[in-house]
Structure formats: C-alpha cells, structure tokens
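[Automated response] Your request has been received and processed.

Submitted sequence:
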Amino acid sequence: MKEREQILIRASWISIIGNAILSILKMGVGIFAGSLAVLGDGIDSATDVVISIVTLFTARIVSRPPNSNYAYGYEKADSVAAKVLSFVIFFAGMQMLLSTGKSIIFAVPRELPSTIAIYVTLLSIIGKLGLAYYQFRQGKKAGSVMLIANAKNMRNDVIISTGVLCGLFFTFILKMPILDSITGLLISLYIIKSSIDIFMETNVVLMDGVKDTSVYSKIFDAVDRVPGAVNPHRVRSRQLGNLYMISLDIEVDGTLSLNEAHEIGNKVEHNIKETVDVYDIIVHIEPKGKTHHEEKFGVDKNSLSDKLR
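Generated structure:
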C-alpha cells in the first residue's frame, strides 16, 4: 500500500508540473498568435492540472487503512476520483464548444495566426506523449483506474494537439482563419466524448460490478482443482481498485468433520488467490446434495455459460 501511494503521488506531481508548463505556454502563445484552437488546447491542459491535483489528493485517501466506518478501506476513492475527472473534462469541453461555436456563428473577423502556434503545438504533442505514456505505465503498475483515466485523457490531448496542428497547417495553406475555429469546435466535441467514455467506464466499479467477467471462470476452475469441493454457486465478485472482493458457496460431503470441511475451504481460497488478485474472500461451506432455493444474487456455472453463448 505504501509503494502504491508513492507511485500515485509521484505520478500526480509529474503530471501537475508537466501540464502546468504546457498549459501556460499554449495559452500564452494562443493569445499572442491569435489562435483559438491553440488557446483551447491550452485550456484543456489547464484542466489536466486540476485533474492531477485531484489524483494527488486521492492518493492520500486510498492509502488510509480500514476503520469502523469504512471496513473495506478507501480503495473506491480511486474510482470516485475518476468519475470527478470526467465532469471536469466535460465542462472544459463545453466551455470550448461555446466559445468556438460563437466565433463561427457570429462570423467574428479573424486574422491568420502567427507561425509560432505551429511550433508550440509540436512541442505539446511531444510533451503529452511522454506524460501519457508515463501515467499509463504507473497506472498499470499501481492498478489505479484513476491514473489510467488520466493517461487516456492525456492520450486524447495528443489527438487534440495533432488536430490543432492540422488545422493550423490548412489555415496557412488556404489562408482561411475560419478553419482554426472549426478545428477548435471539433476538438471540443472530442473532449466531451472522452469525458463521457471515462464516466461510463467508472460505472462498473461503483456499481459493484467487474469489467472482466472471466474472473468467474477462474474461480470455478480453482474450485474444480480441489478434491471434495463441488457445485460452486452464488459466486459474487466486485472490484476495489485492481483487487477483487469474492464470496462464494461450495458443497462438501456432509459427513466430514468441521476441521476437514474447513481445510477444503482453505484450499479453495488458496487456489483462487493463485489466479485472481484478491482483496478479500469468503468461502461458505454447505453439505452436498441439499436442496437450494433459487438465489437472487451471484453466478453459477449454468448462468455463466448462458451469458457466454
């Protein structure tokens, strides 16, 4: 947990400093060069600074140990922060959409941007590529959906800056400053779309679901490898960061002693932990062959097979 906290904090600080430099540079050049697209790109980088501050704050929260109020710990703060990031990105995109849309609709007279806008955009693409790659690697290493969401946002920034560069290029070739505004409009729509994508991705974890349902097949395979354990059912799994909370029922021979049944349950737990990254696991043991009422919750082999068809 300590190592994970350090990864999150270090990645957040690097993101804050890198994006602050790029944001100040792009907004300054955007105003000086008269390019709405570059200015909008700079505003987007400014939101990345806010996003990174959120990730820094969240890194302090997720590392807190469980307590009586939060018995499972604070891991879900990571997903909550990613949800907050989606709103920040959305409002930045809407702001840019309104400003560029207004300049197009009301045909505001524009001059050709200065060529310095091209050079700062090239620099932005290189810088954002480095930041996105670093954030994604650290997010995978720490199992943080928050850092991975931030990396995806920066990847989008690379696409945005590439769009700005293309817009500037054609603006200078065709001598039509309106192309700069149109590029800014398209960029704003892309920003809004990326915010919606991040918002939807975090729903699964916050709704106590799992993104990769193959985890259930791994659980069933782990149970099958334990002699004496049969009929795994009412299997439930949810995510806390990159770890899984798992609970399941298994059946054993009803004539076994409590110690023998308990040992089988321990072997099931051990096998599952060998193939799944587990935060916590509960194995409930039942006597074999008892009639079960239809369960409202959980997954069994039959229901999983139906979903995979």
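Summary generated for your ticket: The longest strand covers residues 230-240. Strands lie at 230-240, 243-252, 278-287.
If you did not submit this request, please reply to this message.
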